[in-house]
Design goal:
With 765 residues, the chain is of the alpha/beta class. It is built from 31 helices and 23 strands. The structure holds adenosine-5'-triphosphate (ATP). Monomer and homodimer. Part of the essential Sec protein translocation apparatus which comprises SecA, SecYEG and auxiliary proteins SecDF. Other proteins may also be involved.
């Protein structure tokens, strides 16, 4: 047995890979014969696989992998490695395949997608972003062509017609947000011909942990019916003059801020002697709090960037601009006022969906990622998915050096710069991972001051991504990057054409340096994973200080330590403190995820009831039939006047309108309920139970109410020029809709939020 095959056998906690490994030999045995076929004959072989149902029987699985391997060799010039085929088989079995960076997940995913498609399943390959959706679909297209499978992709710019065409393909590549928003928009369709997304078949998720865990922390929201918000420039100006420590205090974790007594006095005076806590005008205090939040807790170039006159959020786990993301509850407007940019529209939430609810619609789910084991528990709990750990094609020889620990940030930075200078002198390429944009710029300036030239990759210059990454493995290259470099980037040793590869290999390959550990070990691993791809030499090391936010916030009660003259902590057990801090941070993130899920469970169930009814109105004549029963005279009169078809059309529009409007109101009620529910923490009652206890009765009678309102509108709607004018009767749909992801709890965990709210309500620390 080849070494790579032996290693593939699996690790504890992983699903058993032996059944797949056993098939590798028979797959290889098919190679000679398939190699002799013409392209047309090979396509015909693939088509033959479509004669049976899923799952694949042993012989068919062998044939699929063998045909797929031959097709990839011809179409892409790449013969899939054994480990890639094991990945394909794990995916076809509905697993999360953990495969390291650069192992060729794109190809493994495409072969599995084709396998599902050949058996008549519609496959959605869920990519991390639009750029990768397009790149991967186009890259794999020749392979799909040869296998006789159609492929499409969806980008943000696509209109409804283009989307429909892309979804009509057997395999469609799209980001989770595009997919989610298409599903949400479809839920508001008033004509079956407007629907875009077909019934779900298979979800094959790339970078599965990122989508299933990180993205799943916030629901996708569809908003519409805009009402411009006033930009509170005056309040932004006022808080700009306040001083930290004197007028306001920020808690240790930077998650909550409150005015001090001096601050309260200063604000009251600046506003002309108002009483912030007066019961007469309760609108001022929330405005002050919002402006203060925006001022004190949100930093430009850390939490957001200002580009093209707009405030753009930075996605925490990826370091990229989160295109459609906004902050909730007026915070967006407060940050816009702070930055002096025009206030963007706010709107009414029309509907929302969690990533879980979106993906659990698919009868078959599977995915791939380099870092799944760390979240295996969550994948099982939330998605019923098991992880298959597939070892690399060539053993990973990257050396992950232990962290270097420093007392202060300054000493850490000095040490990092000194190390860069020393290693750079040998010609070895270096990649430095930072936590945010501001940090990446500061490090770059510092290096420049030392005469070390570097390229910078962050959310501000993401257009440069491809060329910067292409050269990051070149001899003598220094690249500073935020988490952007963490996913889907292939750093080749010796530069883009790998011409200098041997010289770079001699220096030791890529050296990855982390400027502080990330809030999750998966992010650390992704950064490390940029080095050592496909058996390349390389190493990684993180530089950490006690002052790092992760450590300060999550391991506050620290023991003493001895330091060297350079400020390096000598006690190795201090690394445990750092690891512990990271685990605490991970626990918090998991709690956020769990909360989003818990609070949305009941909402999803209720939404299901509405959708089922809605579908009968949309596709059948349920609305018309109901109105004929509820308003028999008016119905008969209208049929007489304008004809049955026109009455049915109006009945559909009116009934759908009231269902949708009822849902918007219900969602708004639930959002308010959830806001207030945190305060019940103090009453020692379980807020989730309280929420469910009130959300359930509030939904009772939902369908009856919508039906009664529809009858009212139906009775009132006038006939104009032979048509029932539903608009005059108040049936108006938002002319524009837009989409975003809200950050449900941008700053804190549930408990801290409750405490924070109470503190701000009392105005005291
Ligand atoms: N069987 C193969 N033979 C040769 N090259 C391959 C093979 N499979 C993939 N590659 C190459 O390996 C590189 C990495 O592939 P890919 O981007 O799919 O990796 P990945 O696993 O998605 O990595 P990442 O975690 O960085 O996203 C690509 O340049 C691809 O062309």
């Amino acid at each position: 047995m080849a070494e790579s095959v032996r290693r593939v056998l699996g690790r504890p906690g992983s699903v058993d890979l032996r059944p797949y490994v056993k098939l590798l030999k028979p797959i290889e045995d098919r190679e000679a014969e398939l190699g002799g076929l013409s392209d047309t004959e090979l396509t015909a072989k693939a088509a033959e696989l479509g004669d049976a149902e899923l799952p694949y029987e042993r012989d068919d699985l062998v044939e699929l992998c063998a045909v797929g391997r031959e097709a990839a060799r011809r179409a892409l010039g790449e013969r899939p490695f054994d480990v890639q085929l094991v990945g394909v088989m794990a995916l076809l079995d509905g697993r999360i395949a953990q495969m390291a960076t650069g192992e060729g997940k794109t190809l493994a995913g495409a072969l599995a997608a084709a396998g599902f498609a050949l058996r008549g399943r519609r496959v959605h390959v869920i990519s991390v972003n639009d750029y990768l959706a397009r790149r991967d679909a186009e890259w794999m297209r020749p392979l799909y062509d040869l296998l006789g499978v159609t492929v499409g992709w969806i980008g943000q710019e696509a209109d409804a017609k283009e989307r429909r065409a892309a979804y009509a393909a057997e395999v469609t590549y799209a980001s989770v947000s595009e997919l989610g928003f298409d599903v949400l928009r479809d839920r508001l369709a008033t004509d079956p011909a407007d629907l875009v997304v077909p019934d779900p078949g298979v979800a094959l998720i790339d970078e599965a942990d990122s989508v299933l865990v990180d993205e799943a922390r916030v629901p996708l929201v569809l908003a519409g019916a805009a009402e411009a918000v006033e930009s509170d420039v005056a309040m932004a100006e006022l808080v700009r003059g306040l001083r930290p420590g004197r007028h306001y205090e920020v808690d240790d974790e930077g998650r909550n801020v409150h005015l001090t007594d001096t601050g309260i006095e200063a604000v009251e005076e600046a506003l002309g002697g108002v009483d912030l806590y007066s019961a007469d005008d309760t609108s001022i205090l929330p405005r002050v709090n919002l402006a203060l939040h925006a001022h004190a807790l949100f930093q430009r170039d850390v939490h957001y960037v200002v580009r093209d006159g707009e405030v753009k959020l930075i996605n925490e786990s990826r370091g990229r601009i989160a295109l459609l993301q906004r902050w909730p509850d007026g915070l967006q407007a407060a940050v816009e006022a702070k930055e002096g940019v025009a206030a963007s529209d706010s709107g009414e939430v029309l509907d929302s969906i969690t990533v879980q609810a979106l993906l659990l619609r698919y009868p078959v789910r599977c995915g791939m990622t380099g870092t799944a084991m760390a979240v295996a528990e969550q994948l099982r709990e939330f998605y019923e998915l098991e992880v298959a750990v597939i070892e690399p094609n060539k053993p990973c020889v990257r050396v992950d050096e232990p962290d270097r620990l420093y007392a202060t940030q300054e000493e850490k930075e000095d040490a990092l710069v000194a190390e860069v200078a020393e290693v750079h002198a040998t010609g070895r390429p270096i990649l430095i991972g930072t936590q945010d944009v501001a940090e990446s710029e500061r490090i770059a300036r510092r290096l420049a001051a030392e005469g070390l030239t570097c390229s910078v990759l962050n959310a501000k210059n993401d257009a440069e991504e491809a060329p910067v990454i292409a050269e990051a493995g070149a001899y003598g290259a220094i690249t500073v990057s935020t988490q952007m470099a963490g996913r889907g980037t292939d750093i080749r040793l010796g530069g883009s054409d790998t011409s200098d590869r041997d010289r770079v290999v001699e220096t030791g390959g890529l050296y990855v340096m982390g400027y502080g550990r990330y809030p999750s070990s998966r992010l650390d691993d992704q950064l490390r994973g940029r080095a050592g791809r496909q058996g390349d030499p390389g190493s990684s090391r993180f530089f950490v200080s006690v002052e790092d936010e992760l450590v300060a916030a999550n391991a506050p009660e620290t023991r003493g330590y001895d330091v060297t003259a350079e400020g390096e902590i000598t006690d190795p057990s201090w690394r445990d403190v750092v690891n512990h801090a990271q685990r605490v941070a991970e626990g918090r993130l998991m709690e956020l995820h769990r909360n989003t899920w818990r609070y949305n469970k009941l909402i999803d169930l209720q939404r299901g009831v509405v959708l089922e009814h809605r579908s009968e109105v949309l596709h059948a004549d349920q609305g018309d039939r109901q109105l004929a029963v509820d308003c028999p005279e008016r119905h008969a009169e209208l049929v007489e006047e304008v004809g049955a078809e026109e009455v049915a059309r109006a009945a559909r529009l009116i009934t759908l309108y009231h269902l949708d409007q009822g849902w918007v109101d219900h969602l708004a009620f639930l959002a308010d309920l959830r806001e207030g529910i945190h305060l019940r923490f103090l009453g020692r009652r379980n807020p989730l139970d309280e929420f469910n206890a009130e959300a359930a009765p509030a939904f009772k009678g939902f369908l009856d109410d919508a039906r009664a309102r529809a009858a009212e509108t139906f009775n009132e709607a006038p006939v104009v020029d032979g048509r029932i004018d539903v608009a005059q009767a108040g049936v108006k749909r938002p002319s524009i809709t837009w989409t975003y992801m809200v950050q449900e709890h941008p700053f804190s965990t549930e408990f801290e939020n409750a405490a924070g709210r109470i503190r701000s309500a009392l105005g005291r620390g």
